[in-house]
Amino acid sequence: MPGKYANLTNDPDVRRWFENLKSRSIITATVYLRCLGLYCDLNQTTPKQILEKAGTKKFKNDFTDFIRKLENQGKAGSYVVKFKKVLNSWFAYNDVNVKLKVNIAGEYDAPTLREERVPSKEELDKILRMATPRKLRQTHEPDVSKRRTIRHCYS
Q: Which of these, 78, 40, 77, lies nearest to 62 by C-alpha position?
């Protein structure tokens, strides 16, 4: 798996977690691995160290401070919540009974979609009229012998 955080999969536990996620969705697995790697980079830690500190008050406080810092930087709640989901997944996979219960402002808000709307009938018509037609493929009439062979295979 290429990418900035592919080296995380050198750790057998991270690789197993990634492979487990990948069995359901390669996209989720890749996004979660990148997010775990980014969290580790931003907090100068490793996935193993996260597991070691997971149940402590200091970890919960540090994670809460991390979330508040991202919120104060103006990050969307839908972006910030990703870190919480990834760490909860990492904990669950490793049988660490910790559930991060940090409230995140705008957790279900998607600001990039806020102004989106379905185009009106007129707008859709205008868009379709402006589209260029695809180049038509030239079709050649198959010779009779091929037709018989094809018919024979399906009878």
A: 40
